């Protein structure tokens, strides 16, 4: 075996260790890996250690994932077995008490889970159909679990796997330290691909893992029962390489799906910042192509969360009354609200705020309680305002506890602004507006537009663009539109100066959002639910349009520089007429450009430009905005604008190909020569 | 085969077709071999560039017409590379500094410096100075204009500037006072008719006088546009007839349709459609200011005299906003919405008056 690895011959001491290792592998693994299979396995240009690593793979993967699991932030079943540790020995009990509550009170049965019952059932049925009914007829068995962090994705899967008697084989990203000296040396020898090597190796290892885990069963160790040979593969850590090149992951998945024997589960947390993992790694085409089933978890509902928190608080209180401070119901509710559906963070902050020996904390809590009770009393007096008042006061409280920063997806943020909720104000309570201002009378808003913009994690001007794209659908009166559009226009002017933009953007968003909310008279009062029902939301077209405008202007300048005209004349006079002249002297790129830009789709019943719908979890920043920098090599073909060429069928016969950027550059060079010869 | 506008461009001051008196004066100006910095201004299509090139030819001889396009890259102090293309002959350099956007100051400083610092080698056949022709000076930022003022003083010995722009109003006073201002007014209708018929004669075509008159009127006294129109008439139909259609530019027709759509219905849905059309215009390289201007003209054609003042005022207001702001669509849309509201109110009032 060692002879088949050329790298080992030069370094004797490595041979020894490697030999030892591989021989142990053989010793343990003889049952499952026949020697012939190992010998035949191709090396694929990788060094000896890599080969050894491969051999020992089937054994250590399951082992190491189990062993490493407790070290990771997430709770694993092996970490704690029984929730009530008092019956155990003292040592294990003290150890148990040192565990964070998240670990100590991790759910054990389906009933403990705070996740919606429906979601659990969904996952369960999927697992059942794909594990126990053998091979599904079509497509592979890949499941994708998504949802915000702390919504119980992993816990659900672990518990279901336990209930169904499935082994979970989990992929963990190997550390780069796993490379041996020899491998490093190899890498340094061919230093040409030094930088790319580790990541490629990671991707290769991942592929290897998938295929092996798919093919081979876990080794049967001494004392383990052999009855459950069903298993599933779980991937939560995705090798970094795939973020850069999602294509390689798709390739691996395609291969996996073709040969899959056991289900593969991906767990990906939603995130609110622009780079959505789910969207880049699993675009919808791939989901459809590979029949990947996507189950999206919701944030834990407050009632479920309360149940769990109560249970934990009760258990703690019964266990050691002297050590921790018991929270009352009010505080628990505050906690619940503060962590926006993230149960892990809720339990953490519950533990944190129950620390008794922190005297400051106690005062802090009592003060909080007092203030909130006062608020509530107030609220009962003025019943009408109760909700909004309490909301704001509690919001502030939560900030103080150190709860999570709440954030909402853009889709919901826009919805909140557009379908602005109001609450009726009783006549007696609020001072009436004078008669000449009566048209501006509105019921109290139940939302804080500034908060919403902030929570959408977006710059003000960007949010305004989204708002601008969508507000018209929800207006029915043109006079309202006038006011709203004027506010939007003002908002744009406010943040136009680049030196003050950062500061002004929040003001600008405030003007725009409040302006749009206020001007929609069909939603002025609580009882009005404004003429229009649900309308789909869209992404702003402005970036695309603006980019195209800039690109076309640049192209015009470079293609027609020989006319020595200022851009404005060129674009508004020369190009449109050139389109009519069909002058034979122009070259292909020029003809194409003229026909595209000089012509407009006249007399056609105009529809709207193709819109990209904004879906539930889209990140805020459109992709166009991100590759603003390299607009030069954007391919005009890819832009979803309707080409106006389609409408002009009476073009001169030689209909040119669409211009690519390269063609433009080439033509530019030609152009200069041509001009010289004149 | 080039465009008529280029092909029949007069090459000498003496051969210019209109404003002959001014041409004679310009010839006198360069007779002595030197001239002050010039600031040539006038509406588009009035023949500013033609006049300048004639002047240079008078000064340097036919060598001026041998042009080459150069792409220069200038490094700004912030290490940013700026690409700009210039058109140059052996004697002069033409550049549009506003191509560089916000970095126009750097272009002015660096480019002029490199040109002006090198002395002319052979003073026997050449002049002592080079000429730099700056176009679209009114689009320069204030910064760049101040840089220009300094450069003008510093390199007076080796370099003359000819500034070319549409309007003097955006040029700072110090520059105006350092230049000899030459106003090139738009040609009159008769001038244009004359040019059109002479061009057609050179092309071997007969142009009916009525058609020439109509083209001239339609061109808005823009000679380039008139020539382009005439040439497209030729493509459309020859022999010419006096009452043939004069082709219009697509975007103008499109804007007229848009204006009709606005007048036809005043609802948010229609506004949404109009927004789509405005986007379409922008992607076809029509600058937002022009959209605003032409749209206003079309709308004014459609509305009652009473409204015109108010509508124009709104247009001015949003045009100003457009200049201040960064995203044109907000302001264009706000203007359209405002017009819709004004118009709708007017129509409803009119209906009420009719009823009672």
Helix tally of chain B equals 14
Low-confidence runs of at least 5 consecutive residues of chain A? 1-89, 191-197, 358-362, 367-400, 603-608, 622-678
Main sheet overview of chain A: 5 strands, parallel
Characterize the quaternary organization of these chains: heterodimer
Protein name (chain B): Replication factor C subunit 3
Function (chain B): Subunit of the replication factor C (RFC) complex which acts during elongation of primed DNA templates by DNA polymerases delta and epsilon, and is necessary for ATP-dependent loading of proliferating cell nuclear antigen (PCNA) onto primed DNA.
Family (chain B): Belongs to the activator 1 small subunits family.
Domain AAA+ ATPase (chain B): 34-190
Quick overview of this protein structure:
Chain B: Pfam families: DNA_pol3_delta2, RCF1-5-like_lid, RFC_C. With 678 residues, chain A is mainly alpha-helical.
Model description:
The complex is a heterodimer of chains A (678) and B (356). Helices cover 52% and strands 4% of the residues of chain A. Chain A is mainly α and 678 residues long. In chain A, the strands form two sheets. A five-stranded parallel β-sheet of chain A has the order 2-3-4-1-5, with helices on both faces. A two-stranded antiparallel ribbon of chain A has the order 6-7. Chain A is flat. Chain B has 356 residues and is of the alpha/beta class. Helices cover 54% and strands 12% of the residues of chain B. Chain B has helices spanning 4-7, 20-31, 48-60, 104-117, 142-154, 173-178, 189-202, 209-218, 223-236, 250-264, 268-283, 288-302, 305-324, 328-355, and strands at 38-41, 68-75, 81-88, 92-95, 130-135, 159-165, 180-183. In chain B, α10 (250-264) runs antiparallel to α11 and α10 (250-264) packs across α12 (288-302). Chains A and B meet through α23, α24, α26, α27 and α30 of A and α9, α10, α11, α13 and α14 of B.
